[in-house]
Amino acid sequence: MTSHDPASSGTLRVGAKDDFVLNAGSWFQVLDEKQLLVTRVIPPQVPMFRQVVDYLESKPSPADQYVSPADEARAAVAVCIRWGSYFAALADASRPFSPHARDENTSHIADSEMARLNIEISAAFQWWLTLKGSDDRRYTQLAQRALTHLQAGPKTVTHVLEGDILAECAASKIANAVQSAWHKEFLERDLELAREYGIRTIANTATLMSWRNGPVENVHAGQRPGHRFNERRVLPRHEKAIMRQAQNVLRAALNALSQMIFEGAWPPPPERILPFMRPFCHPRDWSYTQQSLEIDLPMNDN
Fold first, then answer.
1. Is the pLDDT of residue 81 over 50?
2. Is 41 among the domain residues?
3. pLDDT at 276
4. How many domains, in total, are found in the chain?
5. What is the pTM of this model?
6. What is the DSSP string of the chain?
7. Which of 8, 176, 236, 254 is the most buried (most CB within 10 A)?
């Protein structure tokens, strides 16, 4: 189906491999609360990243081998962002490019789409980090399978400031200092939030630093909306830049979290989570529980 087909409902599918098609949700045309015609996209029942995990774990077990921190980050980005989120639909090479795709003054990701992406990527990171800390063998094999069976990002992974910030958050020596400096009025509230939502709190911060505050903003920002449904809106060069930045940040973060696991601070106690909640690196208004979000795309915004 293309954007010019007369159908008014369907399933949004993305071919990841010859033997693997992702379900990115169902869609239909409807009048919104302002009586404007929109395309509403409902998330799939099985989150996209779990579809990716299920596919990978259906493959033969790989031979045990060392996974470097760089390759661990590449695998995480492939599973949690490139293929395990709505980003797969926006960058789908089988779809025609939006006529505005190369216009830098056009926004190519709607606010509602960005909200869905933030939620899905954070939920996927939460699952990924939980597995990392609970089942090293399964985690390593999943990373190996991802690098074998999925298109991953650039092989060169380098040092970036955002990675240092996440690594600092995970350092044991900073936890006491952060807690001592925390605003007394909010300390108990925030420790309780850290206690209740734990790893998702870290995942939200990792998503903000590796994804949301990176090159994706060049695709999201723009003076004119260009959010036509079912068209490819992410150029290959933007995709590469987004994947590279996410990998660079996550390499340092995952390496630091490995140290937390080695120290026995996993699942992390609230005081070890608090550094990830500092205002300059933690999104206060993001969900700690959602897995995805339905979106509305106007039919007449182009």
1. yes
2. no
3. 97
4. 1
5. 0.95
6. --TT---SEEEEEEEEETTEEEEEEEEEEEE-TTS-EEEEEEPPSS-HHHHHHHHHHTSPPPPP----HHHHHHHHHIIIIITTSTHHHHT-TTSPBPTTTT-TTEE-S-HHHHHHHHHHHHHHHHHHHHHHHH-HHHHHHHHHHHHHHS----S-----HHHHHHHHHH-HHHHHHHHHHS-HHHHHHHHHHHHHHHHHHHHHHHHIIIIITTTHHHHH--SEE---TTSB-S-HHHHHHHHHHHHHHHHHHHHHHHHHHHHT--SPPHHHHGGGG-TTT--TTS-SS-S---EEEETT--
7. 254
